[in-house]
Design goal:
Elements lengths: L7 E2 L2 H21 L2 H21 L6 E2 L1 H11 L7 H15 L13 H12 L1 H5 L30 E4 L1 H6 L8 H6 L4 E5 L2 E5 L9 H13 L8
Parallel strand pairs: 1-2, 3-5
Antiparallel strand pairs: 4-5
Helix pairs in contact: 1-2, 1-3, 1-9, 2-3, 2-4, 3-5, 4-5
Amino acid sequence: MPHLAISFQKQPPMRKVLLGLMPAAAGAVFFFGWIALFFIVISLLSCVLTEWLFLRKKGGKVPEAVLVTGLLYALILPPTLPFYMIILGAVFAITFGKMAFGGFGFNIFNPAMVGRAFVYITFPIHMTNRWIPAANFSDFPGGFAAWRFTPDVSNISTITSATASHAYRAGAETLPSIMQLIFGNINGVFQKLGESVFIGGGSLGETSALFIAAGGAYILYKKVAKWRL
């Protein structure tokens, strides 16, 4: 019987980048639930299979850099995106953001950002107008104990949602402090025109600046990247 055999080209620096993305990935599960991990798996499989389809006739191995693309792409998507949009964006990212330029090392754009840009332009409502609340650290175990984290809103009659930056622009009277935003404690409610608005998260991996900074510090420590451009 025919079988799918994918060989990876070992790239130790890319493995270090993957480790650097782990805090943000783990945070995504805590803040939003195990659906975040499902997003990541779908993105990784879509990216790997797309690149493998381009390389299989040449007998070439799939660079491990595609795993970085798949993980990063998932982390910059909102947790409300339908699964088929994740797949479409991943295929577009690898096809037009990477392979169209000749593959690894020849692309002039970050493939993950190309994929996000495609989804943003093609499905703008899903990318800009649908948010869900994220868990606070006081909600532990938060998303680790749920498929999709759902806060207690039993005492609130009407709910819409927005990110913290949207709430700020809307003139909210009470917002999370700077330190709360850095840690990722963005969950809260503010009043807007008599309506209760729940502050939610944006993309999966952007909720906690602390987790992002921790991953970035690890990458710099391992000298995979330089702090100066």
